[in-house]
Amino acid sequence: MTKLQLSDVAAAPVPTLAHSDAPPAPPARRRRWLPFSPWHLVLIPLTFLLIVPLLWMLVTSLETEGEANRFPPVLLPERPRFENYSEAWAAAPFGHFFLNSALVTLVVLLSNLVVCSLAGYAFARIRFLGRGALFVTLMATLMVPFQVTMIPVFLIVKWFGDNVWAGLGIDHIGALMLPNLATAFGIFFLRQFFQTVPVELEEAARVDGTSRLGVLFKIVLPLSLPALSTLAALTVLTSWNDFLWPLIVITSHDQMTIPLGLSYFQGAHRVKWPLLMAANVMSLLPMLLVFVGAQRYFVQSVASTGLKG
Amino acid sequence: MALERLNLTVSDGEFLILVGPSGCGKSTALRLTAGLDKPTSGEIRIGGTVVNGLAPGQRDIAMVFQNYALYPHMSVYRNLAYGLRQRRTPRAEIERRVRETAELLQISELLDRKPGQLSGGQRQRVAMGRALVRKPQAFLLDEPLSNLDAKLRNQVRGDLKRLHRELPITSIYVTHDQVEAMTLGDRLCVMSKGEVQQIGTTDDIYNRPANTFVAAFMGSPPMNLVPAVIRSGILHIGGAAVTAVASPNGPVTVGVRPEHLQLHSAYADGMVPARVDFVEPLGSHVLVTALVDVRDDSLPGTAAQTRVIVQAPAGNDWESGTRIGLVMPPERTYFFDAETGDARRSRERISL
After folding, report:
1. In CATH terms, is domain A88-305 a member of 3.40.228.10?
2. Measured between CA atoms, how close is A206 to chain B, in angstroms?
3. Does the ipTM surpass 0.85?
């Protein structure tokens, strides 16, 4: 394909400079045999595969229990049963789970934005002894899976609970916040972005009488809103959906977050699928909203760092 | 080491130019003054106070950056006001000074725009404004015109000159453009490889260059430098005896500016023989590039020929290869040490 276009350009009567910048040469376009890119033939089935579980969840949440257990599966309920939602809400302290999730997510989000900004800026712009080594170490922790560190982290959190403040310890939502107050990924991500801010802007601000910290908050951060939004979206998503860590540290119902609450809901009674799915839909809604609002930033995060969030 | 033994004093209200090729340390000197870089040794004083330990914001200086460094997320008004706000200037005072400065630079109608919506020339003026509005002790300008196109640059150069006449604030101006340097500065400091080559007025630099570097760097086209040798009081170029000079014997570098060399189509005694290489017409005059034979048996290792540029009246056309004679007017001919490149102390006169 590329080869063809190149030879076409070379054969054109007056190959000017502007020509080489122009979009794909017209002859290639004429050869199109589909009204859309052939990639769609691959991507649409893939999208379908990904969306089916979600659709099924939605459908099941509106079915009666009989319909949900029938085989072959019922694809369209006879009469959507919206009561599933109110029943699910009443069946477990979901309001409480929501509140816990929201609280944990909010604290983790704010702390990540502040701490990762400070650390990322230091790594990006301030020269200090051991910066390189420290940064490499930080990067290295990105390679270690959580399953490897969860027991040491558990012990550390337990120590904090026993020695510093019980609210940070095991079986308190503080334990869900503490290990996630800053992430290596967030620091790395913001550092990469801060490095692209022209250093002259910072120098101009310093000549104008701004302190180092002032430069960060008045110049660099306002210019980094896209990066901060991306980090915020990723953090909210990860924190809201976190399941493994809450499962390890939380046992009391009143400290559970949504994902943990859902599994508790599933285990405590005979599984009522429509109710479970209704609860699922409710727990997913905030994240769906976040994703719809911040889709652009999710794509950016992958594109700008080459790392998956 | 970027800078060595730099010793420079800028007097009050003076417009000093630091000029030199890229990498000569002129920007470093400016950044040291601003406090953006720290010197490994030495002392920097502004208004008599040692400022080595002061942060850039405490030095009461303003800087104009090459790429203007306007804050992209702030309006022009906020860009101008920023430095004053940082210094907790009262709001009314900020308002008054921003308006006044905008008036002076004719950017009043741009105050609500963002830098991204401005043209290059407008951005340059905003950058100047941001420095002016603070009424600092000194201005530091780092190639402020190099991002403008040629026509605009000439215009802004004039504006700068007028501005400095109206507001004579002590200024250090860094540039690599020798036209800017010569037209703008009260004094010039020519730098190369981290060392000062010469400090002086445009007249000093142009008519009394301290060494071959200054001679070749300042002026467009640059001064012609021809290797020669003086034997028993006679200047020899390429083995041809040119003229008697009152200068010590030995190898020497002769310098003549293109506009001072006289071109004669017939060679006579006392001229430097040359051959035309090519001619560049410029409308008002032509530039003739000629080849001068400089091989001298007593100067081992010299090239066989050297290129010389002569400014000649328009309307003349010489074929490539035409033999010509060049006359070096004695009062406009300079002698430099062949090895060090330094100007020979007293300006010798060529006596015929």
Report:
1. no
2. 6
3. no
